[in-house]
Predict the structure of tRNA (guanine-N(7)-)-methyltransferase.
Amino acid sequence: MGRQTGSATGKRKRSSKKDNGGADRPAKTGPKEKSILPQKRHYRQRAHANPFSDHNLTYPASPAHIDWSTHYPAFAGTGKTPEFADVGCGFGGLLIELSRQFPETLMLGMEIRVQVSQYVQDRIAALRTTHSLQPPPTDSLPPSDASPSTSPTPGPYQNISIVRANAMKFFPNYFPRASLTSLFFLFPDPHFKVRKHKARIISPTLLAEYAYALKIGGIIYTITDVEDLAEWMRVQLEGCVLFERVEEEELRKDEAKGKILDAVIGGTEEGKKVERNGGKKWLACFRRVEVARLAS
Ligand SMILES: C[S@@+](CC[C@H](N)C(=O)[O-])C[C@H]1O[C@@H](n2cnc3c(N)ncnc32)[C@H](O)[C@@H]1O
């Protein structure tokens, strides 16, 4: 079983649905930023969306049909595509937390709920505006597997974006083969009832899609406060030959991955809520491995 943090014990149901994990409380913001950051109360939304419903969404026919310059205008012409994908990104805490740590890495959140995805879109736009003239922090890092960049890094938050999308149905429409280095499933909806397990975002079929999009050596990060779901994800991932378990201690030997882990554990709205409520977290990470093809 993965790392456990926090003080509460045993299986638990999710706590108050009205607590949005601090999405209304942007940390370390000045008065100007506060005045234009969107307020969660203006984006009312049901707590859950049914991933099997027809959400009347439009999708790109394939990743090649996406014009990434509309998402990341400051990177237009660089040929870059997203390397980090946050599936079920909720209110966008991970993207915002990692954006300034990896200013040259494009990151994309996928979120099925319309109002929540709109909130994140507005939040990113507001952050881009308010930070447009500020330099990145001195501790920012290039992607761990990238060569040093020769061009100046665009301003803060230019490297994050979101799509309203049902990842269970259309994940491959967004990400080409071996394009991702990090894939996040942070506090995914637990779908407690057995008859609802098919709605869980980690399953053998979906793992094949995730493996296709990940580079060899890329990492899937999972974390949950629901013990039963942690066990479910572990069983699915350990049962897939395309992934191997990698311990937190090993990942932390790489400074960049250490920063990612800190954000995974404590940077999202849901993770902060679990901490406030004294809950436990189960972290488990898996590396995409190469599998030799059998000669026919
Ligand atoms: C419990 S929240 C966690 C949000 C965020 N990862 C965090 O840690 O704060 C799970 C999110 O996944 C979204 N979600 C559920 N199923 C999804 C799907 N099939 N595609 C995209 N997003 C989905 C939900 O709408 C919800 O916002």
